[in-house]
Task: structure prediction
Amino acid sequence: MFLSTSSFTTSSAVKQRKVSTSRTLHQSARGTRRSPPITAHAASAFFLFTVRPDARTARTRPFTPACAEGRRGVWDAQVMGSTEYTKMAVNSTNDRAWSGCAVLFLRCCNPGSDLLTFYKDKHGKFSMFKVIKLTLTDVAGGLDGYEILKLHDADPFLGVELKFMDALPCKRFLDSYACGSLLQFLSQHASRLLTLPDEVAMEAVLKAGTHILDHDLKNTELCLQHIYQSQPVRLRDDEVTQLEQQLQNSYAPPAQTPQEVPKNCFVFQKRVFDDRPLTSADQQRFAAHVGRDWKRVGRALQKNCRALKGTAIDNLAYEYEREGLYEQAYQLLGRFIQSEGRSARLGRLISALEESKLTNMAEIMLDIQPRE
Result:
């Protein structure tokens, strides 16, 4: 049987194509690894892929499954409001120092009394501010860690906008508010300063942003978180600044009127002494105790004494050098008394001693006993 040339050529070409295809598949199988099946972790990594430049490789890398679980964990904590996450957010100071804002709404339940009316009254506004300030001092444990930003009309309530700069006073405030101490202190101060009936009933509402904290008072950490997230949108109101200054001035002691000194007297160390003429006894006491400082006293006296001007002091030092310091000081004061006559008084000598920084010597001249 004879085959045609065309049929033989076709059969040979088919065989060559099969061999070529087989070699290609074999080479592909040797040079290429099979891709593993997509697992759940790989799928999560795929969907959470993000571009993160790496400083060393300049490549991008995806989140790992552990990162994805961490992200979901934080999101769940935010949604569920867990206590652990709340504490972490309140105590965190990486972004900014702890601060927060809350608004306290106050109202008197007595039909004949209205806190808002006292605030609007020109004379009652300061008393109302003092009541609020004293109440906050009692419940927050002092004056530090908070401030009043504004008082405003929130009819029928009086609104008090507060800023807390520390978590500890804020927590004390919340604890006092939750147990009713705040309203008790408010009632006591209002009865005393606003002439209201004793133990008058008060009502209060506490808000932080859009949250009414009265619903969550059992969860102090959550209330702190709401206050921390509510930041003040204004500085302290000028009216509050004026009321604060007025309150500080009311606590300051009254200014003391200067003491009137009698005509023939002088003041030393807040005590009044008789400005009598100097005597020989004063002259002897001065000479016995002044020592080498007699020249300093002489230069202070010579400003208002002609007899001691010029070289008079140096002449006295030279003339009585042999007699010693006692005689030099004795002659100095004697020259002063002789020149000034009745004007040589004890007050002038004490002033010269003070000017020479000889306070102890002045006390000796006035016979003041040393302090024990």
About this structure: Confidence is low (pLDDT under 50) at residues 1-15, 21-36, 38-90. Strands lie at 100-108, 146-154, 157-164, 202-208, 211-212, 265-268, 271-274. The longest strand covers residues 100-108. The chain is about 50% helix and 10% strand.
